[in-house]
Structures are given as structure tokens and as C-alpha cells.
Amino acid sequence: LNGLLEYAEVMESTSDRALELGQAGSPSGTLVMAERQTKGRGRRGSRWACPEGEGLLFSLVLDPDVGKELWSRFALVAGLAVAEVIEGFGLEAGIKWPNDVWIGEKKCAGILVEGAADRLVIGIGLNVSVRSFPAELEATSLLLEGVPKPSREEILAGVVQGIFRWGSLVGGGYEKVIAEVQKRLVFRNQLVRMLWQGEPCEGVVRGLNDEGHLLVEMNGVVQAVVQADEIRSVQ
Length: 235
Ligand code: BTN
Prior knowledge:
With 235 residues, the chain is an alpha+beta fold.
């Protein structure tokens, strides 16, 4: 790694700052981290809130050696990197396509992939030692899952290394990433409801295709879903 490291107790959003640095041409590997964010962002304009010091909130600037049309692949790369680190604590991690990491039925980490000029920014919020969540969030943390003293330094190093390792396969060898993600895919062979092309619809998750798109069987036809929101299991 030869990037910069920018750390602050409080920041509006590490991803906003990383996007600025990316736009200014910061080198690949630049890392922005904060203890607390006042404008932490999730996907689709949602907020990412986390009590001070209890989470890992960071954004990594990358200068990928693949075309922009492949950048969205880094969502699964980052999800896999986070999942492997969680597994290193002896827990089972699930990847909720395209970019959440779950433990059991609860979210433990969220990933936001964005582009800034020639740079890619991967923002990750990981619940390390959060003690409680509002019930409606259906979230969990490593501490709540029984890891007494998770080391944030080790987690951060592991995730960043994983992103570089799996990220090197985005342009060639991506099927290895897909295969690893498939093993951990949440909702496999389950009926889900989701918003697809703006419409609510239902189908059974069958896996991923070579591009990393979600294969969903709807009315007997398997569709490759490139983008969908609010995917939930139908009980
Ligand atoms: C999601 O689950 O919708 C994605 C959440 C991503 C949150 C992280 S926290 C660090 C980085 N900075 C932000 O403002 N967002 C990402």
C-alpha cells in the first residue's frame, strides 16, 4: 500500500472525503477513517449511524486497472473480504447481494461503492462492538455475536488486504470471486420480494451469473437482476 491515511475523530462522511481525495488524484490505497460521522451515508440516500468508537467506518480509494464498466464488481469483492474477516472469528458470514454482510439473519456491515473521476471509493461500515441497535434495524455486531474484544486494527488490515487480493481478479479470474460469494449467498433457493426496475416483484434466488448479477426465478423464468432494492425473504 502506498496511499495516504487520513484519520479524524469526527467527519461528515469518510466516503465524501475519500471522493474528494479521489477526485484530486490520491493514490490507490488511500484510506480515510473516522470514529464518528455526522453525515454517514448508506445506499439510496439512507443514513448510516453508529455510536462513536463502536464501529469501523472507513473508505478506501482505489485506482483499478479495469474499465469503469467493471467497477461495480468491487461490491462483491468488498463483501467477500469482510465476510472472510468475520469468519476468521469463527462466525458464519452471509453476503446479502449486492453489498451487505450478514451474520445469521442480521446485518453486520454495509458497503457503498462509488466513483470519483478516475478513482473508485469503497465505503465500509462494520459494526464491531456496538452494544445495541434499534429493533427495527435488524442489525448485529461482532461483540453481540460473541467476539469479546474484536481488534479494529486487525479487522481493518484484513478487509483492506482482502479487497486488494480479490480485487486483483476483477478483470480476469472474477469467477473465483463469484464462486466464493455464491457459497455465502443469503436467500439462496428462497422466495424473496424486491423492487426491480421500479416494480415490486417476487421470485426464488438461484445464485449469481458470471457477471455477479443475481439470478432470480420469476414465473418459471430465470432473470439476471443487475440492480434491485429492498430484497427481503418472504416467510
Ligand atoms: C449501506 O448499507 O447502505 C451502505 C453503508 C455504508 C456506510 C459506510 S460508513 C463509512 C462510509 N462513509 C459513509 O458515509 N458511508 C460508508
